[in-house]
Write a structure and sequence with these properties.
alpha+beta; disordered N terminus; five-stranded mixed sheet; 4 domains; 27 strands; Immunoglobulin-like; four-stranded mixed sheet; elongated; 7 helices
Length: 429
């Protein structure tokens, strides 16, 4: 019994004296303070005195290097560390572990770059007297190893189909780092909607809701990458936030088979217009496309899409009231030369042509981010990425599979198609 009491007394920091002290204290119950003083033979006990300043007996290593763990060691022969509390400026703790002999401690997670930390160390000397040491420091930067993100599009008002884009300054390939990066990118909307990021490639992410954005929504995009520790010494850096709004929900459904396009605003049909689309060999792509830009005038040439000059299919035309759908040159535009075929035949080189009057009406109605969907065609399907924003041609399950935070993202990586961008300036007619 005496041995057990003595062992507990050492663990609690009591003076390491003869066994008679512990036994005497066990017999004297009241008054407790008086009993302790009498048993001890005079003089204060370690726990009854203020902790001594142990700062000078501690070494904090290269505490300002974010690429190195925080290491604390005792420099006094009889001192040992009993507890360490390390926190950043926001009060978040830094986990760590003590060495078996109590003479050292090290953090077990990376420190953030350019962050302020406070470390409070509890110690005891060879007699069991408690000590306290406090150390504050700021970690340095990780120059040359910074990961930044640029959000798109530019601030403004867009259609309900506009995806949010994130371009990283360096490629991120590991599943762990992708999950860390993705969880640090925040998208919020009012009203709130369900949405997800999708990794297009090692440096590009797109974000879209499960369905289109609500009309008249406010969207805020921000980054919490600053100080994030990634592989190979890479550190996250601050990113510029982005604010967007949406306008009316404008959708146009172009029926390639019937040669007509119906335009809706907030679910209400506005007009049905006669159109012509791509003929055999130049078929217009099926699927949903997001308007990329409006161009009141475009010079369209056959050579820009690989048609030899002087051939039967060659053309060089001024085109007005054009809404771009793909980087490879699909537009909705005025085509007065094909009015006789609009509503009855497909005679274009891939664009959706209509009369000048109808094209101007459409041009003045729409904005980037609005949706044009081609249905009942005989051409290829619109690619999800690389030729504009075909993001909405993926089902929600397929979209979520491209998230690093999704359980199925690893399988999706092996199936993701080549997303090398095609030429951006190839207007068709």
């Amino acid at each position: 019994m005496s041995h057990e009491i003595h062992r507990k007394g050492l663990r609690n920091g009591l003076r390491r004296g003869p066994l008679r002290i512990a036994a005497c204290c066990a017999l004297v119950l009241a008054p407790l303070v008086a009993g302790l003083a009498a048993c001890g033979g005079g003089g204060p006990q370690p726990l009854a005195t203020a902790p001594y300043d142990a700062t000078e007996q501690l070494s904090f290593g290269t505490a300002d290097d974010p690429d190195e763990p925080l290491k604390i060691t005792t420099t006094g022969d009889g001192d040992r560390i009993t507890d360490v509390v390390a926190t950043d400026s926001a009060g978040r703790p830094v986990p760590g572990e003590l060495t078996a002999d109590g003479h050292g401690w090290r953090s077990t997670t990376p420190l953030a770059a350019e962050a302020r930390y406070t470390v409070r160390v509890s110690t005891e000397d060879d007699s069991g007297a408690p000590g306290r040491g406090v150390h504050t420091f700021r970690t340095g930067s990780a120059e040359g190893k910074r990961l930044t993100v640029s959000f798109g599009p530019e601030p403004g008002t867009y259609g309900v189909g506009q995806p949010v884009t994130g371009e990283l300054s360096k490629p991120i390939t590991s599943a762990r780092d992708r999950a860390l990066v993705e969880s640090s990118l925040d998208v919020r909307s009012r009203p709130a909607v369900e949405g997800s990021w999708h990794w297009v490639d090692d440096r590009t992410l797109h974000y879209r809701p499960r369905e289109y954005w609500p009309a008249d929504a406010s969207i805020t995009v921000s980054s919490n990458l600053a100080g994030l520790a990634l592989g190979d010494g890479l550190r996250g850096a601050d990113g510029k936030p982005l604010e967007l709004t949406t306008g009316d929900r404008i959708e146009a459904v172009a029926d390639i088979g019937s040669h007509h396009m119906t335009v809706y605003r907030n679910g209400e049909e506005l007009r049905t217009l006669p159109i012509t689309t791509g003929k055999e060999g130049f078929a217009t792509r099926n699927g949903k496309k997001v308007i990329l830009a409006r161009e009141s005038y475009v010079r369209m040439t056959g050579t820009s899409i690989g048609i030899p000059a002087g051939s039967a299919e060659s053309y060089d035309l001024p085109v007005y009231w054009a809404a771009r759908l793909t980087w490879s040159g699909e537009y909705v535009h005025g085509a007065p030369w094909s009015v006789g075929s609009q509503g009855s035949a497909n005679v274009s080189h891939g664009c959706t042509g209509m009369s000048t009057e109808n094209a101007r009406w459409f041009y003045e109605l729409v904005k980037p981010g609005d949706i044009v969907e081609h249905v009942n065609g005989f051409g290829d399907e619109m690619a999800p990425f690389g030729n504009g924003f075909g993001d909405w041609n993926l089902s929600w399950d397929e979209w979520r599979a491209g998230s690093a935070l999704s359980a199925s993202s690893a399988a999706a990586d092996s199936d993701r198609e080549d997303t090398t961008p095609v030429g951006r300036l190839r207007p068709r007619i």
